[in-house]
UniProtKB/TrEMBL annotation:
Superkingdom of this protein's organism: Eukaryota
Annotated source species: Lithospermum erythrorhizon (Purple gromwell)
Family matches, as InterPro entries: Glyco_hydro_28, PbH1, Pectin_lyas_fold, Pectin_lyase_fold/virulence
Family, as annotated: Belongs to the glycosyl hydrolase 28 family.
Cellular location(s): Secreted, Cell wall
Protein's name according to its UniProt entry: Polygalacturonase
Pfam family, one: Glyco_hydro_28
Classification via SUPFAM superfamilies: Pectin lyase-like
Signal peptide per UniProt: 1-27
Active-site residue numbers: 242
Record flagged with keyword Signal: yes
Keywords, in A-Z order: Cell wall, Cell wall biogenesis/degradation, Glycosidase, Hydrolase, Secreted, Signal
Length: 400
C-alpha cells in the first residue's frame, strides 16, 4: 500500500469508530421525557417509563433509561424481563409515588423490576414513597395492606449506587430470588416513627453486598430473611431504626437456610437493636449458620447484641414452646460503645436447639458510662479478649 492510501484507511477507520460510538451513544440512552414523561410531579409517568424500558429491553446492546432532574409522578410500574441486554437506570431526578396508601394493583409493589439479568441503577436521584398518609393511618390503627417501594424479583447482577430511597409506605427496598446484588452509597431515609419502613429487606437471594451506605428508617435497617446466603454489609451506618436483623426465622414451613452473613465496620446510632438474630417460638424448623458481626460501634442502642429465640410479636406462639430453629457458628467480635439499657448482651437460645459455636470477643458496651450486664440461656459461648459486660457470668477478660 502507498503511504497515502494507508493514511486514508486510518482516517476512514477513525470516522467509522467515531460514528459507531455516536450511534451507540444515541441508541443507548432513553430519556423518559422523550417518551411522554413530564417533570411536574403530577402527570403519571408510568407509561413513559414502561415505554422506555420496553425499548431498552428489546435492544441487543446495553441501554440506559434516563430520568432527568425534576419530579416525576409514577402511579405504579412493573418492568418485566428477560431483556436482550443489560439495563441501566440513570436516576438523576426524583420518582414520586402517590400519597394514596393503596397501589393501583394492590397485590404488587410500587416500582417493580423482574427477571432482568444485568441492572445498574445510579445517578444521585431518589425514589420517594410519600408514606406520611399511610403511616398516619397505620398509627391510628387502620388495617392497611401496604406494599414495598422498590422491588426486585429474580433479578441478577445488580449494581445500585448513589441513590436515595425515602419515605416508603412500607419496606423501602425488597428483593427476592436475586443473585449478585450490590448497593454502594445508598441512602435510606425515613423517620424513626414511620411504622414498618424496613430499609433493605431480602430473602432467597445470594451474593449481596451493602457498602458505604446510610440507612435511616422506622424499622430494620437491613432485614435478612430466610434463604439469604453470602451477604456482606460493610462501612454502613444504621439508625434511627431497629438495627440489622437476621430473621425472624421459623415462622413458615420449609424456610431455606440463612448462611454466610458478615456485618463489618458498621455504626448503629440510637437504634432499638444493634445486631440481632431472631426466631419464632415453637412453629417451624430452620437453620441459621455462619454469621459474623465485627468491628461495630454502638451509640445509645437499646439491645446492642441480641439473639432472641423467643420472638413472639403476636402474643400467641404455642404456649412458650421452644423455637425449632438451629443457630450455629456465630461470632461477635470487637463491638464497642454505649447501651441504652443495662442488659447490653442477650443471648436467649432455644432449649430444644441450643445455639452452638458462638464466639464472643472484645466487647465493650457501657451503660450510662458504667457497668452493663448480660443474660444467657441455652448457650455456652467461647469467650476471648475484653468482655464488658461479663458474658454469661464469665469473669472479665476470659480467654478462648
Ligand atoms: C455482578 O454484577 C455486576 C453488575 O452487573 C457485574 O459487573 C459483575 O461482573 C457481577 N459479578 C459476577 C461474579 O458475576
Ligand atoms: C468504616 O466505615 C466508615 C464509614 O461508616 C468509613 O469512613 C471508614 O473508613 C471505615 N473503616 C475501615 C477500616 O474500613
Ligand atoms: C471500655 O469503654 C470505655 C468507654 O469508652 C472506656 O473508658 C474503657 O477504657 C474501655 N475499656 C476497655 C478495657 O477497653
Amino acid at each position: 500500500m502507498t503511504r497515502l492510501s494507508n493514511n486514508f484507511c486510518i482516517i476512514l477507520a477513525s470516522i467509522l469508530v467515531v460514528s459507531l460510538a455516536c450511534q451507540n451513544a444515541l441508541a443507548q440512552v432513553l430519556d423518559i421525557t422523550e417518551h411522554g414523561a413530564v417533570a411536574n410531579g403530577e402527570t403519571d409517568c408510568s407509561n413513559a417509563l414502561l415505554a422506555a424500558f420496553k425499548e431498552a429491553c428489546a435492544s441487543p446492546t446495553p441501554s440506559t433509561i434516563l430520568i432527568p432532574k425534576g419530579d416525576f409522578y409514577v402511579s405504579q410500574v412493573i418492568l418485566n424481563g428477560p431483556c436482550k441486554s443489560t439495563i441501566g437506570i440513570d436516576l438523576q431526578g426524583n420518582l414520586v409515588a402517590p400519597t394514596n396508601p393503596t397501589n393501583p394493583d394492590p397485590k404488587t409493589d410500587w416500582f417493580n423490576i423482574r427477571k432482568v439479568d444485568g441492572l445498574n441503577v445510579f445517578g444521585g436521584g431518589s425514589m420517594n414513597g410519600q408514606g406520611k398518609t399511610a403511616w398516619d393511618k397505620k398509627l391510628a390503627g387502620e388495617k392497611l395492606n401496604l406494599m414495598a417501594m422498590f422491588s426486585l424479583a429474580f433479578v441478577t447482577n445488580v449494581d445500585i449506587r448513589d441513590v436515595t430511597f425515602t419515605q416508603a409506605k412500607n419496606t423501602h427496598v425488597h428483593f427476592y430470588g436475586c443473585k449478585n446484588v450490590t448497593f454502594t452509597k445508598v441512602t435510606i431515609d425515613a423517620p424513626a416513627e414511620s411504622p414498618n419502613t424496613d430499609g433493605i429487606k431480602m430473602g432467597v437471594s445470594s451474593d449481596i453486598k451493602i457498602l458505604d451506605s446510610n440507612l435511616m428508617s422506622g424499622d430494620d435497617c437491613v432485614a435478612i430473611l430466610h434463604g439469604t446466603e453470602r451477604l456482606t454489609v460493610v462501612n454502613t451506618k444504621c439508625g434511627p431504626g431497629h438495627g440489622i436483623s437476621v430473621g425472624s426465622m421459623g415462622n413458615t414451613p420449609d424456610e431455606k437456610d440463612i448462611s454466610g452473613i458478615h456485618i463489618r465496620n458498621c455504626t448503629f446510632i440510637g437504634t432499638d437493636n444493634g445486631v440481632r438474630i431472631k426466631t419464632w417460638q415453637d412453629k417451624y424448623a430452620a437453620i441459621a449458620n455462619d454469621i459474623r458481626f465485627e468491628d461495630i460501634i454502638m451509640e445509645d442502642v437499646i439491645n446492642p447484641i441480641i439473639i432472641d429465640q423467643e420472638y413472639c410479636p403476636a402474643a400467641n406462639c404455642g404456649g412458650k414452646a421452644p423455637s425449632k430453629v438451629k443457630i450455629s457458628k456465630v461470632a461477635f467480635n470487637n463491638i464497642r460503645g454505649s447501651s441504652k439499657t443495662e442488659n447490653a448482651v442477650k443471648l436467649i437460645c432455644s432449649q430444644l436447639e441450643p445455639c452452638s459455636d458462638v464466639e464472643i470477643s472484645d466487647i465493650n458496651l457501657t451503660f450510662n458510662g458504667g457497668k452493663s450486664i448480660s443474660s444467657c440461656a441455652n448457650v455456652k459461648p467461647i469467650l476471648g479478649g475484653v468482655q464488658i459486660p461479663q458474658i454469661c457470668g464469665a469473669p472479665l477478660g476470659g480467654k478462648i
